[in-house]
Amino acid sequence: MKIAILSRNTKLYSTQRLVESAKKRGHEVQVIDPLRCYMNITSHSPSIHYKGVELEGFDAVIPRIGASVTFYATAVLRQFEVMGVYPLNESVAISRSRDKLRSLQLLAREGIGLPITGFAHAPDDTKDLIKMVGGTPLVVKLLEGTQGIGVVLTETQKAAESVVQAFRNLDAHILVQEFIREAAGADIRCFVIGQRVVAAIMRQGPEGEFRSNLHRGGAAHSVRITPQERTAATRAAHILGLNVAGVDILRSKHGPLVMEVNSSPGLGGVEAATQKDIAGAMIAFVEKHAEPGKTRTRGKG
């Protein structure tokens, strides 16, 4: 097979592992920076050009799209779909997952367990917004934040009001979410491929830090998950339409709560903690499912 990997950095661990696994399994692979692609939008012969050459003959494309380039990179992925190339994750599904509000609304509609969440832009009554989600302590997030950036834990009513007001002054969209104290600064990242959780790790924030992101100094180890957690992870990925996803879950007294569904989950932390060949499993999934034009949306939406 001829596989394209959409990635802005060939030196990233995840990109290198996918290239290594694809070549090891006998495939031809090319890493393509989506921002350097340009497209011919036409009805009869849509095409993508890269570094002066038309991209042709690809059987599958694996998107590794960073949050900051979602708009253009998903447009490039959509063009591959229009050309009949099989995407490991479709453009529509990635766009759903990157819109935190939309993804939470879709998950809530299907009955997935979530922390109580409020959404606002410029609320006239901050006190009512805070009351609506059960009061303090609560977590205030910028909708566009990633890797724990733009996330603040507020312990008191006054602190919560001050943070909401500060974010409001940034002309930003805000998520206000109940704080799950019993999670104790830890969450579970379930790595889903197809309809299976192929690996799960518990991420624990450093002492005094409620965010468990590995980018913020958190530690990770392999963990055994419950059947309820496994079901929540696979259902969440399926609802958003993702074949590959990192589903972040909190353990609460009410059961598993889905925090976020990541469409380009990093491989480094999960492979190191579990000693599993996640990259190889992703390539194996592509081998099994890639067919010309086998895209549910074919670039629609």
List keywords for this structure.
four-stranded parallel beta sheet; 301 residues; 27% strand; 9 helices; Rossmann fold; single chain; five-stranded antiparallel beta sheet; Dna Ligase, domain 1; alpha+beta
Task: Compute the average pLDDT.
Answer: 90
Radius of gyration: 20 Å
Estimated helix fraction: 25-40%
Largest sheet: 5 strands, antiparallel
Which class of secondary structure composition applies to the elements?
alpha+beta
Which word captures the global form? globular
Q: Could you say what the CATH architecture of the domain at 2-95 is? A: 3-Layer(aba) Sandwich
Order of helices and strands: EHEEEEEHEHHEHEEHEEEEHEEHH
- How many helices in DSSP terms? 9
CATH class of the domain at 2-95: Alpha Beta
**How many individual β-strands?**
16
Question: Can you characterise this structure?
Answer:
- The structure is a single chain.
- By secondary structure, the protein is an alpha+beta fold.
- Among the domains are: 94 residues, Rossmann fold; 63 residues, ATP-grasp fold, A domain (Dna Ligase, domain 1), CATH 3.30.1490.
- 32% of the residues lie in helices and 27% in strands.
- It contains 9 helices and 16 strands.
- It is globular.
